[in-house]
Amino acid sequence: MSWKPLLDRFFRAGEELGYKSDIDANGPQTAGFGSFEVTQNRGQRGSTYTTILRDLQHNPNIRILTYAQATKISIDQSKKANGVYYYHHGIKKFSAVSKEIILSCGSYDSPKLLMLSGVGPKNELELLGIKPKVNLPVGKNLQDHFGSFIFPITINSTISFSIERDFGIHAFYEYFSKGLGLMTVPSAVDGQAFMSTSDVKESGKDWPNIQIMFMPISPSKALKDVLVKALYLKPKVMSDIMDPYDGSDGIMLIPLIVRPKGVGEVTLKDKNPFSDPLIGTLPIPINKDHFIYKMRIFISHYHILLIQVYSKLHTQNILLNDML
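Request: output the structure for the sequence above.
Response:
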């Protein structure tokens, strides 16, 4: 990413609070601040295709199929996977393997394919008429992090990203010709921080359970429309929050719970490989009052951070007391 208009202030604020500002988010679990880590090449997303497959797709020993869906892994009596059943353009086919199968269908479809193949909870598979091959808790312990937004926070300096003001021909030119500019920033997330709440610190092990995403993006009607459509938020609620600050520069913060205590599960609807899996809920094993109390502690802590970040930027509106 090459566009970081407020990241230095974000880091300095973290340093004043006693945090490091050069953490490796993919390294050991460490509290601190750092850039939002991405896989990019000249500002563009480094996908599996662009970084690996594009250069290998014409090799004689590689065959890439599109419009194909794996439906079952063949497992022999010794419980060894020996092939994959799949549909290609509506025709059922089979590919035998001599070495290994890499299963990479995501958090939902990977357990789905395993269970369709007989690898999963025995009782659940039998109820659906699937012969169990290996009895394992596949699909259990589904975890996800949840979070919230702290916004709008407006500033009196025109250095944040405004969709209406900055997203134009120049931005496209910078991105496609040089691999630079605001379009290199994924979802406008510039930086991040990892922190531990007080109860974690009191346990004697500083293992961060809160992540904060830092987005130097201005509140606007265009941003409101993006959030409403992408996150299925209520238009009227978002209008009440954002419309009064339309045209202002500002930032958005996203605090996330990164070590959730609630878990869910992925199960099968039936044995039809084209049916979507069933996704169980992620219960939160804490009462509402306790959760609100912990969020107030977090927001109070972050209030100090915000003051330190933007004391030189003349922060106008920090609507922290209205968030809960």
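Confidence is low (pLDDT under 50) at residues 310-324.
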